[in-house]
Design brief:
5-stranded antiparallel beta sheet, globular, alpha+beta, 13% strand
């Protein structure tokens, strides 16, 4: 294959013109504590601090690198290309502690990647001669250093460790295909052949412990996750719940096994470093367990909400109970007596009203009697990394449902849909297709899962159907191919091929990059090892690749073209067509020298049909011209696309089809659009994959720690392209990002601060802080000014300084309006809307996925994301990993329409994300403000002393309601502490209670008469309209003899008195108060084995209705309360900046403070929400990163990535 030099020169260093400088890489937790620090990192001077951190913290080899190396010469391989090995003699001369070192220079990494690829390319006969090999090596090194392209993370982790350093390790059960023997063989060394593939699709058999079965899959997944790869599996082969087993009995169903796999994946960090395992779980729409699967994550999130709310309610009530037990106003002997300690009685009653288990309350009173004054009780929060989320299942995978055209048409025509058993194909259930469609949309609306994969469309573009259909995808949904295959990814940074000075996209340079990186990925197939023999075989036979691009959103912005525009979509289509056309043409060129992929002949007619359809899409052909399609692609509109781009794309496809007909293709697939999470940060991309930008203002990481607020680098370029003058651009940028200076600011400036007691030194400290802060108020605090200055010069008390909601500017006499005006000038508005000089017709160029800042109103509509994907999809071998963003106010109907539009526009898969749909995220500012207003409202409290007044008032207003002469009811016999009790009830026609009779044995006449009178009084109260609830609240938990064990009643096993027993029984039977029963109805079933804590109805729809009903009821009856901690001991579960994580240490029932480096701020729910809301305004998701804890996660394809440390939940 001919390789020309375009970026480098013969006999020259590929890094000519690059200044490599020493940098320090430091990753800190949210509280400022250092996670990892690496000194003297050598990297190009133009790399950002984040890019340096990615290289140093994630990709540098941190162990086992020999300090002295020598070449292992091989016959037929140029000396400079031969592998290296430890030089034992030279190492022996060094002290033992100096014999092994670590990578510290980015050029070491570039060399081991490019050198390893060149070596294996040479061995695979990809180069005609040594000169071509040298050209390839230099060009790749140059592109890596200049951030023009990057392979997926597993390449950085694994590639070249053996070739460059001679690192060896015991085999890990991997396999490779040996072309010399024509056999799949076991790897003899863990590192000689790297695992460079990011994406895998694994199959599964309906077998528990056999090869290829359920437990074998978990082992294969673990092997992949360890080396930094992700995997997806379609689990539709597993039988549904209740299907017969071969050995007798019935299957526990799919979900039980998915939960095991989910837990296993959550325990493994990808690549042995900091990325969590990436996993996709897919299920066909006709599987018997599809309804439970669809609701899996939504149901688990409800569990998290229950745990969070329940733990806080328990903590609050139990704290009140323990405090009441030590009420000094009550005699010591009576403090733990519910009857004699009124405060304790009140606390117990309120606790039981909120469903706190009685045994917890009683246990606490028992502990108080034994001298315990305080307890520990875990309190959880909705932090995604919290113990609450760790407790539930389904959090370690992306879930998708495979939809066929038949199902979607059944939805359109409101037809029925059959769910089929996996063992015999019989119909297990028939339901309305629209009902199931509604369940899918509601689950996605509620929890952003499941995503959809359009099975028919995927398989109509399948190049190799002779082997099998496509059943699944990788975790991020861009790689879709046969089961037991793998794909290695690489992405080209589009912005590197655009010239600001000429405003032209370098088509020839992009063409050159596509050829080189197609070759790189092909070489990676040849050198790779795989987790099992079947994947090794199929990877050799099909040789699938995953070349894509990054920074499309930034490219369109700097070109001055709106993301949501026909022109933007046409350019996207042309660039994608050029990418895939060149890649397939290169594949055909390789096939002319090395032969096509082994299974090409068997699938030739299918592949050429798909190639012709790709080419027709480039030509914007009529639908009737396409072959074998039922859903038709969006073509490129020639009048909206630059001529050079479209002409190059057409030529590339003409070449690909012409060469393919002659020689076939070396690869069954070549392109897809990956999320480019970590590698996007490594390349300093503003946007990832095909995504638009998420914010106009970014936070640049500083080498010494902290952040510096800057404008998105695409904005000034876009303004220049749109024709704005330099002074106008400066004005617009200042409006957006702020001046970061007190000079010239309204209200809050040097003069006004001097007048309020500030010194020049203090003002200088504030001025230094302003470029870093999101809001001006964050620059005015004791940490910036010093406590002594605040107390002595400004007269602020220590108590005020330590209050988490203290606002110094407000304290100094500035009004909210004055603070806001100054903030807009100094810190900016974070949006360009209403910026001076900016024409309104240009607003759309700067639209982002979300609203920008607190003033921004504009954002890219959800349909625009779908149309952009539709513009690229016809020109890709695989699919696109992309999130379709929806605003929080989007409805279920909006969700359904978006999903349906995706299908009709011929997307292969989709993941719709409604802002705030994850429980771990804060509400948007408008909704939050509405909720905060509720805190100010006065809710009438229900005090025990008001009960009697309420009853009297009801009696006065209500007339007695007469019972029918013949009435229904029941008679219940029970024995309490050896005393028989007979309870008789009388009911109205509507089934409500109207009278009771109480008869007792073994008691004296006086007591029996008293009980009769008591029953008459209660009956008269009921007939005059006193609610039974009032009696139950008043008399449950009364304590006197006889009491103790209850026999004869299936629901009540213990009572504190006869009256307690009677009203428990009435509450259970007439009010459905199962919380007062020690035994629930589920426990009385004949097949009950144990008490199931979180039982839910089998029908998800019923479960959803119940949850909704409960929610509505609680909104009516429960006042909103807020728990605010006071002074504590400084050693709680905070982390110094208010981001407590709710786990690891039990929460002591006293208020807690964080223990961070700057004195610790109070850890409260209010503080957590505030910080998350600020993160949202900055354009982040509001969740903390799993590794560094920073609130800098952004959407990245169908996954998330951290802008601080580079952690990603995806494959790249």
């Amino acid at each position: 294959m001919r390789i020309d030099r375009r970026l480098t020169k013969d006999q020259s260093d590929p890094y000519d013109g690059i200044d490599f400088v020493e940098r320090t890489s430091k990753i800190t937790n949210a509280d400022g504590s250092v996670v990892s620090q690496i000194e003297r990192v050598l990297a190009p001077d133009f790399w950002s601090q984040v890019a340096v951190d990615i290289m140093a913290q994630k990709y540098f080899r941190k162990a086992g690198v020999p300090a002295r190396l020598k070449r292992k010469l091989e016959t037929g391989v140029p000396e400079w290309l031969c592998p290296s090995a430890p030089d034992a003699d030279a190492l022996a001369e060094l002290p033992e502690s100096e014999r092994l070192v670590v990578e510290t220079d980015s050029r070491q990494v570039f060399h081991r990647l490019a050198g390893c690829w060149t070596y294996w390319g040479w061995k695979s006969k990809c180069f005609s001669d040594e000169e071509e090999a040298r050209h390839y090596y230099d060009e790749i090194c140059h592109m890596l250093a200049h951030q023009m392209a990057a392979p997926n993370s597993p390449q950085w982790f694994n590639t070249g460790l053996s070739w460059a350093y001679g690192i060896e390790g015991s085999p890990q059960g991997h396999y490779f295909y040996n072309p010399e023997t024509g056999q799949v063989e076991k790897s003899r060394n863990a590192y000689e052949r790297p695992q460079p593939h990011a994406c895998f699709i694994l199959s599964i058999k309906d077998d528990l412990v056999g090869k290829g079965g359920i437990m074998d899959l978990w082992q294969q997944e673990a092997r992949l996750f360890k080396y930094g790869s992700g995997t997806g599996t379609n689990f539709s082969n597993l039988r549904g719940a209740g299907e017969l087993l071969s050995g007798g009995g019935r299957s526990s169903g799919l979900m039980s096994f998915l939960k095991i796999g989910d837990r296993a994946a959550g325990a493994i960090k990808s690549g042995g470093t900091t990325r969590r395992a990436a996993k996709m779980v897919t299920l066909d729409i006709d599987h018997p367990d599809i309804e439970e699967f669809v609701n899996w994550k939504a149901k688990e999130e409800r569990k998290v909400a229950s745990m969070v709310a329940g733990s806080r309610i328990l903590r609050r009530h139990l704290k009140k109970v323990i405090a009441a037990c030590w009420d000094e106003e009550v005699e010591e002997a009576h403090r733990c007596d519910v009857k004699k300690n009124f405060r304790l009685k009140k606390a117990v009653r309120h606790a039981t009203e909120d469903f706190v288990p009685e045994n917890y309350v009683y246990r606490l009173i028992q502990l108080a009697r034994q001298g315990v004054r305080d307890i520990e009780f875990e309190e959880y929060d909705t932090n995604w990394n919290s113990e609450a989320y760790a407790t539930v299942s389904g959090q370690n995978s992306n879930n998708s449902v495979r939809l066929t055209n038949d199902f979607l048409r059944a939805v359109e025509y409101d037809d029925e849909w059959d769910l089929r058993q996996r063992t015999d194909g019989q119909i297990s259930k028939t339901l309305k297709a629209r009902d199931l469609w509604g369940v899918i949309n509601e689950a996605a609306w509620s929890s952003a899962d499941p995503g959809l994969q359009f099975d028919t469309t995927i398989n109509e573009w399948h190049t190799c159907p002779e082997e099998d259909r496509i059943h699944a995808s990788n975790p991020c949904s861009e790689y879709m191919f046969l089961n037991d295959t793998a794909c290695n990814l690489a992405s080209i940074n589009l912005i590197k091929f655009y010239s600001d000075s000429t405003g032209v996209f370098d088509v020839e340079g992009f063409h050159h990059a596509c050829r080189l990186w197609t070759l790189t990925l092909e070489i990676s197939v040849a050198m790779a090892q795989f987790p099992n023999a079947e994947i090794a075989r199929k990877s050799y036979e099909y040789r699938t690749l995953g070349l894509g691009y990054a920074n499309l959103g930034a490219l369109l912005m700097v070109m001055g073209i709106p993301y949501d525009s026909d022109q933007g979509r046409s350019i996207t289509g042309a660039i994608t067509a050029l990418l895939t056309g060149v890649s397939y043409a290169t594949s055909a060129e390789l096939a002319s020298k090395l032969g096509p992929f082994p299974m090409y002949a068997k699938n030739k007619k299918h592949m050429l049909r798909v190639m012709r359809n790709h080419r027709r899409a480039v030509l914007n052909a009529d639908p009737q011209e396409f072959e074998g399609l039922t859903i038709f692609p969006q073509g490129i509109h020639p009048e909206l696309c630059p001529n050079n781009m479209l002409a190059a794309a057409k030529k590339a496809w003409n070449d690909a089809l012409e060469q393919g007909k002659k020689y076939g293709f070396r690869n069954a697939q070549t392109t897809c659009i990956a999320p480019t999470g970590t590698i996007g940060l490594l390349m300093d991309c503003d946007t990832t994959g095909i995504e638009p930008d998420y914010a106009l203002v970014k936070y640049k990481k500083l080498a010494g720690g902290g952040y510096f607020k800057i404008i998105n680098q695409s904005v000034p370029s876009a303004l220049k392209q749109l024709g704005y003058k330099p002074e106008e651009i400066r004005s617009i940028v200042d409006y957006c990002v702020g001046t970061a200076s007190l000079d010239g600011a309204p209200h809050i400036n040097r003069d006004s601060l001097l007048a309020r007691g500030f010194t020049d030194e203090a003002i200088a400290c504030i001025q230094e802080e302003l470029p870093k802060v999101f809001d001006i108020t964050f620059a005015f605090n004791k940490f910036v000014l010093g406590e002594a200055f605040c107390r002595e010069n400004l007269g602020i008390s220590e108590e005020m300084l330590n209050a988490f909601d203290f606002n110094m500017l407000r304290h100094l006499g500035f009004t909210e309006e004055e603070i806001s005006d100054a903030n807009n000038i100094i810190c900016g508005t974070m949006t360009v809307e209403k910026a001076p000089h900016l024409k309104e017709r240009h607003y759309s160029v700067f639209d982002c996925a979300n609203k920008c800042g607190k003033y921004g109103k504009r954002f890219i509509r959800s349909e625009a994301h779908i149309y952009m994907m539709a513009a690229a999809q016809p020109f890709l071998s695989g699919a696109i990993s992309k999130t379709i963003n929806m605003p929080n106010e989007a409805t279920l109907d909006d969700m359904g329409k978006a999903h349906m539009l995706c299908w009709k526009l011929m997307l292969k898969g989709t993941a719709v994300y409604r802002d705030g749909s994850k429980l771990s995220q804060p509400l948007n500012s408008v909704v939050s403000e509405d909720f905060r207003l509720l805190e100010a409202e006065n809710f009438e409290s229900k005090e025990p002393l008001q009960v009697a007044e309420k009853i009297v008032e009801i009696v006065r207003e209500k007339k007695r309601r007469t019972l029918p002469h013949r009435r229904a009811g029941y008679t219940q016999k029970a024995v309490i502490g050896g005393h028989k009790v007979y309870l008789h009830t009388g009911q109205y026609e509507d089934g409500s209670l109207g009278e009771i009779f109480i008869d007792m044995h073994k008691e004296g006449a006086a007591f029996r008469s008293l009980m009769n009178c008591f029953a008459i009084a209660i009956s008269l109260g009921l007939q005059h309209g006193v609610p039974l609830e009032e009696f139950v609240d008043a008399f449950v938990f009364t304590r006197f003899e006889p009491n103790g064990i209850v026999t004869g009643n299936k629901r009540i096993t213990m009572a504190t008195s006869t009256i307690d027993y009677i009203f428990r029984d009435l509450a259970i039977n007439y009010l459905d108060r199962t919380d007062l029963a020690q035994v629930t109805p589920d426990d009385l079933r004949a097949d009950a084995i144990g008490k199931k804590a979180n039982s839910e109805p089998a029908n998800p729809a019923i479960a959803s209705q119940k949850t909704e009903a409960i929610t509505k009821e609680e909104k009516k009856s429960k006042p909103i309360s807020t728990v605010r901690p006071g002074d504590g001991n400084g050693n709680g579960n905070g982390n110094g900046n208010g981001n407590g994580n709710g786990h690891e240490k039990p929460v002591v029932l006293t208020s807690v403070h964080g223990n961070g480096q700057k004195g610790g701020e109070a850890v409260t729910a209010h503080n957590l929400v505030t910080k998350a809301a600020i993160a949202k305004l900055r354009g982040y998701e509001g969740d903390p990163c799993t590794e560094c804890g920073q609130l800098t996660l952004v959407r990245n394809g169908t996954c998330l990535k951290c802008q601080t440390c580079g952690t990603t939940s995806g494959c790249s």
